[in-house]
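Lab notebook page, bench 4
Experiment: in silico fold of construct C2
Operator: M.H.
Input chain length: 457 residues
Purpose: comparison with the prior construct
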Amino acid sequence: MNDKVDEKKTKELFINTMKFMGGALSSLKLYPETHPSVTKTIDELYAALQKLIGDKNRIVIAVTRNIPVLDGVPVYESNVHLQSFTKLIQDKGIELIIIKSSLKRKELAPFIELVNKKPEDVETEDLNFLLEKKEVRSILIKDINFTESARETYFSAIDAIEKTLDDIRMGNKINVFENKRAVKGIVNSILIDKSVLLSLSMIKNFNDYLFSHSVNVCIIASALAEEIGFNDEEINEIGLGGLLHDIGKLKTPKTVLLKPGKLNDQEWKVMRQHPSLGFELIYGLKGIDKKIARMVYEHHMRPNVKGYPKPKENSKPIAESQIIAIADTYDACTTLRPYQNPLSPAEAMAKMKKMTKETGDFNMEYLEVFFNMMGLYPIGTAVRLDTNELALVSRYTQKRKIPIVKIFMSREGKIIDEPKEVDLNDKNIDTGKPLRSIISEVDILARNIDPTVILAK
């Protein structure tokens, strides 16, 4: 009964918020921001949003098949305010809007003005860039250009960590601000749609392994932290810890780091020093919290007190370090290395589960959340469809368990140069049955097909 009452109250708050949103959109079309009419409607909208957000970290407003959706729950209500707002954001090509609990009143007018603009009057396709430019940091938008923006965010992060490592090599000061900005871009993209960033994290580059691995761990750890329920500030800290986790490898001899084979005991002793070396590099740096330095130090420690460096008596790695450990291991397992062939995503997860059950290597609670986040068929998994086509799982849509895939081999067994992306949620209009379904996983590495090439197209 209480759930129904809460649902009804939330729906009423949502409709009321959309009423004030409509008022703000209309008044800002007619008057400047300082006009009393605008001030009044912005005040009303801000108060309504505060009530709607309540004690949550954020709310997500989306539109699916012409139906407004609040935090994943469709709002089936014939209401002029909902209909008006739904039509407006669809016309703008906006798929969803995230509003954080950190929202400030002064952020609303620039957001409304941007939404009011005609597409031809917007100077760039990246709406989040424009919001950031106006110091609107508590509202995020996912539109039709999001995937391309996310790719730019990914490669900007690669550039940031590459520059950081170069600075360390040259003895220059580390630009903490650039690293934090890169992580913030990644975290914001994860909050909008973590599936797109997780897909990008499967694009491996062996030649730039340290760079891509650092960014991939940042992505996976941030996504897992968000799924577990850490707040935005904590997620950014974990993301920065993930980005910098292997920074100590800069002090590891290349003969050890790039050895094309298994390390001997002495070489392993040298390799195991990199968490301590990384800690020494960043501890005490202005702008780097001590907790982040601890994540770097502890990312190879294990809850079972194994791993390295050895913890002090009665001490265990902090929760943030345990999250980075999961991300680090998963990305390492699914990457081609001089001494190992990559595991498929499913094989990597099975290995990590076995390690945890047998020796307690990972936090089982966090690992279960990680498995649920990745889905039955993790991004990067090759599958056979009931049409006999081969495809690669490329992403998941919001709140859905069935993936979007890229078909790379026809039913006749021919490689498709430009993989075709299809949504396995799509159904036959007449029968209501899925147009395509997954029947099994396949090993494409045995066919000498590189999944990272398919995901990159």
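Observations: Residues 147-374 form a domain with the Hypothetical protein af1432 fold (CATH 1.10.3210.10). The chain has three domains: 2-144, 147-374, 382-456.
Next step: discuss at group meeting.
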